[in-house]
Amino acid sequence: MAHDHTQHEGAAKLYELIKDIKVAMMTTIEPDGTLHSRPMWNHSADSSGDLWFFTRERAPKVRELSRDAQVNLGFADPSGQNYVSISGTAEIVRDQSKVKELWSEGLRTWFPKGPDDPDIALIRIHPAGGEYWDGPSRSVMQLYGYAKARLTGEPPTELSDNRKVTLTA
Question: Which domain holds residue 81?
Answer without folding.
Answer: 2-166
